[in-house]
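User: What would this chain look like folded?
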Amino acid sequence: PIVLNERILGTMNIASNEAVAFRNEHLMLLQPVADQIGAMIDRSRLFHEIRARNEELLMLNEVGAGLSGALDTEAVLRLVHTASARSLPLEEFTYEALTEGTSTLRRMFHGTFSEEGTLVADTTPVERTAQEGTFDWKSVNGGTPQVGAGEGGRQVVAIPLKRHQNVSGLMTITSRAGSEFARGHLRLLESIANLTEIALDRVALVAEAEHEIVMTEMGIVLHDMPQDGPVAERRQRLRDRFREIAQARTLPTAEQYDFHRD
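Assistant: Here's the prediction, encoded as structure tokens.
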């Protein structure tokens, strides 16, 4: 037996074509060899674990650095999808926002890769309700990662994103055909989900701040804008001024203008 710390790792089998070829003293010589093999296996395992962990940390550092500069939701999710695909055997990546207090999920991003290896992203909003008892429903309601079976022998992993301990969204990863996610992959996906939620929170806060700034600036424009002249001319002045504001802010010019015209 190959034993390490009182745990049997396997056996070393030696055969001979001769009858009664091995004696007790041979067994006494072979056991230390088996013990050395066990120690070598353990060192190899530790080496691979340390290397894999270092690669995970480097990848997470890269993702974190990239997310710190992402300015909108789509940019965040594109970066997460691309970075994840470099380290994981994934084929599809989906992010869905959860409507608070329900099981309704609103798809915000669905990414795949073309045969040429380029990212194909679909940001068309699609709503669905997680069906009770399914692995994604369990992830949303239990707040824990869940693994399910997809089509064509693919593996599907649902990772909940949490805001203040409450599930705010769901990240669903589908493996390539014939591939499975290892335990280390699941740990990495959870870490990526945490970074993603932090980045999405920051994007939302920036958008709120931008909105407040725009509203304040539009109020100032209305207050200071000359009210003389034909109505069409005044409206055009408003359009031009709001267009200038929109070049540096997030609200569309038409939306700003319609809001104040009404």
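Residues 88 and 185 are 7 Å apart (CA to CA). If you want, I can go into more detail on any region.
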